[in-house]
Batch of 4 targets.
Target 1
Amino acid sequence: MQLIKVPPMILVGQYDSPVTRRVAIALHHYGIPFARDTRSVFSEAAAVRTISPLTRIPALVLDDGEVLIDSAAILDHLDELVADAALMPASGPARRRALQMTALAQGTLEKAGAVVYERHFHPVEARSAVWLDRCLGQARSGLDELARRLATPYACGATLTHADVMITVLIRYVQDRLHEVLAPTAHAALINLAQHCEALPAFRAAALSDFEQMPQG
């Protein structure tokens, strides 16, 4: 009997997008094979829009052609596939803690990203100083709160969760793009957690390639 080879999922997006990278890390951690579509939302926006109508990444094309968008929705599907092996506790206080730490890290990333995009797409004279100050303050506050809530050895305690993945991709992003909000002393525990996670196989497998860099502004 001839076996029919099922095409792998396709992850759309480059790893300079932290939320795309968090999905890739989960896929590697779960041992789910996938192919990549690394077309750029900057230089190849029209092509990406045919897959993701908002021209946002990540998108995950399933083996039957269905397209999932938004990293949280994608991870929810992957968690369902792996059941008890999911990087999210199933219920109770442990689940709420992991969800809240993940949300706090993602919200911090959104504020850092807002600063990066304001600086990248607007010339100095067109930038809103009020908006930049607000977002910078929110990013610092988010990092401060993450550091305050951080457990050991992982963000929520004994085991790796999506919170660790989100914090790690956040720290990499701010180190690369907005290092001014990262305090070496106050945020040392977050930096150390990220360094530890970056050495894990799933994180190494989703390392950024040289071409996966947002154009410098």
Note: The chain has a mean pLDDT of 93.
Target 2
Amino acid sequence: MLIRLKDQYDEKSWEEFVATYRQYIYNVVRRMELNHHDALEIVQLVLIKLWKKLPDFSYDNYRGKFRNWLYTVTANQVRDFLRGKNLSLSKIPDSSAELDKSISIPEIEEIAEKEWKTYISNLAWEKVKKHFSEGVCRAFLMSIEGQGVEKISEELGVSESSIYVYKKRVQDRLQEEIAYLNSEFG
């Protein structure tokens, strides 16, 4: 997808990019404790900046993951937005030195990574659940909510061994989808 985005006017690739990353960018901005409306505005500003920069962007796997660069662009846009609004930069410092004092680099990476894992897991679930019946999905969700196999079996009217099979099938498919999404979009 990043290669296709070298052509700024490839609308289909751009729509795919936006569909893939918009929610992630929004989630990261919200973790910076901005309100919903400011977060939406920043997402738009980030997307405009990316649209301008992606044709010249050269992905280098050795320098890090694309999403790390994306997070950096997003954090910088938040700083610019706050400066423009004359808001306090206490949460998002202005300089690298201030950034290191207020929030450590591993903490920033931890925030971005946690948001990515949640985002990719949700995206994978949306794709995977289409391949299973409602009952299988419900059994899986009940099990990850901590309900016991016996209770799930009773409520759904299927054997306990079936619940184990359902759970394993969904887990395997989710792991495959998460691995695929990480390799495709990571």
Note: Confidence is low (pLDDT under 50) at residues 93-106.
Target 3
Amino acid sequence: MFRILIVEDEPDIGELLQTYLEHAGYVTRLAQEGQSALTLFYQETFDLVLLDLMLPKMDGYTVCQAIREQSDVPVIMVTALDSEEHQLQGFRFNIDDYVTKPFSIPVLLQKIRAVLRRTTGHAGDEPICYRNLTLDLEGYQAYLGGTPVDLTRREIALLRTLLENQGRVLTRQMLLNRVWSYDFYGDERIVDTHIKNLRKKLEADYIETVRGVGYRMERENKT
């Protein structure tokens, strides 16, 4: 998973960014002022930094300069300062993009993916397509014929496991191990409940029950 450092002094915006980024599959850390951001940056490893400019005590330019003295990690400035001069000043510090507030979350996510793809060679897992179903692994979103389907994170993980093992029977215990983790000691019937919910939300019985064994997603014929 990619790790992103969010440097934002407005709590509502910081929490909003964390929520959407983590929902999209990123690991995040949040700092609300410059010095704490640099402390986190020096102590941990990050793949990208989202950096506000108007920070208390130490502005974003100073933070960016300190980062650039140590690393060429991608930096996207996210700020209400929208003048040409502010943007040019940011690019003088070799930032990778400049986003002005108010911003669109979907557009910001695409900019993050584009920067990561350019700097690392990839931006995450490619979507899985199955019949009229598409599972966007980066955005943690399923689509039926292009229409979003409201799935929980656990349902996304369960659907992904089945799609990545098309044609293979997965026992309830195997699904528990992969989706709920190895330290789950609850009732195996929780798998049945989630499969039932998936079938209902997908409006189609893509998941086959192998009686007495488990579940299988029939292998799609690509020919």
Note: Residues 10 and 25 are 23 Å apart (CA to CA).
Target 4
Amino acid sequence: MNILIVEDESRIAKRIQRMTRAILGDALQSLTHINTLQEALGFIENNSLDLVLLDLNLNGDSGFDLLTKAVSESFHTIIISAYKNQAITAFEYGVLDFVPKPFNRNRLEQAFNRIVTKEKMVTNTTKFLAIKKRQKLQLIPIQDVLYIKGAGTYTELFLTDGRKELHDKSLEKLEQLLSHAFERVHKSYLVKIAEIKKISVASGSKYIAELKNGARIPIGRTKYKDLKAKWL
């Protein structure tokens, strides 16, 4: 894993570094610490990352300025902050976890395990998906997303108004964040369960989910029974 720590307090940053190395061991490929917002934004732009550990108060700058950028990227973000009252907002923007300060190794390890085990979110928290469009960031409300299709390391978001937008996160990462409303019905598709109008069996024993807008999404054979039980 390639990890970036964005934390302005040197003492806390060193503690996070020490714990991260102890928890991840050989799974850790690189660990970088940056203490300013602008430098962190530049690093994210020019480096491949798996995870960002982000403080929300950076020498007076707001970590949310970086968070809005980060949640549109391919990596996951975990907040480490004393501002517990901002946890709900952070989750709405699509962070994987919020570790409140002060924290211990067990709590940090719990956050890391969510990535290692691909643990899914169990509560309705993520409210937006951020996309990059024409060099700007745009927040897409989850309520406007009908289904999501995997496109290699990227995903395609299919929206209620007929638009299709590209997201840098993989289908697996979005599945972790959106499991409260979406179901992985196929290796290449996440579908909002509330948008399913009909589940049927087509010729050749192929399973199909027909959405309210008329879209027909294939259902994997191993997914059919679970999906039908949840949909009913």
Note: The mean pLDDT is 90.
